[in-house]
Amino acid sequence: MSSLSSPVVVVGITIVVVLVALLSTIGYIAYLRKRNITKRKEFKDEDKKGIDVPFFDLKDILAATDNFLDSHKLGQGGFGPVYKGKFPDGKEAAVKRLSSASRQSLVEFKNEVVLIAKLQHRNLVRLLGYCIEGDEKILLYEYMPNKSLDSFIFDRMLCVLLNWESRFDIILGIARGLIYLHQDSRLKIIHRDLKTSNILLDGDMNPKISDFSLARIFESKQTEANTNKVVGTYGYMSPEYVLDGFFLVKSDVFCFGVIVLEIISGKRNTGFYQSDQAMSLLGELFQAWRLWKEDKVYDLMDQTLSETCNTNEFLRCVNVGLLCVQEDPSDRPTLPNAFLMLNSEIATLPIP
Asked: Which InterPro entries does UniProt cross-reference here (predicted)?
């Protein structure tokens, strides 16, 4: 009898151990899921108290965008697509759906929302709200009916809609927005991805700087930082950032200079190459510099501007644009100085 009972006891004990282990595993998984749900709820119910913009429910966003229908897509950025959303009260918004491949944590996402919510300036796109639910992280911005600046200045049909006065006002508006980011806001912010596609135009063609995905906050006395991963758009990134990973306020100044030259020429800067002697900028920067040296600077002008152009303002724009894209950051002006040079009637400006 004992010879039969021994295996039965062993089997019984084994079954009990397996069941206990299984139940423990199920219990632990349930605990983890509950903890994650609790964390998510805490972000919505507690952490959102530090955010100055409203939280939107995912179901409302899905309804406003027809479940992110392709026909509602406004564009595709490096961090995800942007859709036009229309809500029941008639309000419209640009809905930025962050890519699921993004490694941004909930804390990092909240910090980004808090940062953007604090930026209030007429030349910065306004954040209307945010959503985080499951794997979805979404930002809602004010909708810009005229989309981005690049869709006008690089399109041979639409560029005629921007006369010289409009383009000069856009340049000054971008400068005002950057001055606010660099010195007038409560936070000192380097944009790091300033380009014509990130300059949006409202119904009155006023420029608004957008997309702060790569923006970095600087301490009040901090002048530079570095990164091991260079991200941005070739043609706009400064030499010190491309080659060494260093970025500073003057890196945004470089981007501004590129944009100024693109606006007045209607041509896109294409990038760079590195030779044995030094870095050489290609595209419109090289062309602008060559024409400047040969005293043929009017050849740089977009021909659609020939009848409306203010020649004094045009020359100042070329001069300031070239000052801003100088290789050595210390040679570039600050944004406040660049703005003053663009607005002034000073006879002699610094020579790039």
From this structure: Kinase-like_dom_sf, Prot_kinase_dom, Ser-Thr/Tyr_kinase_cat_dom, Ser/Thr_kinase_AS
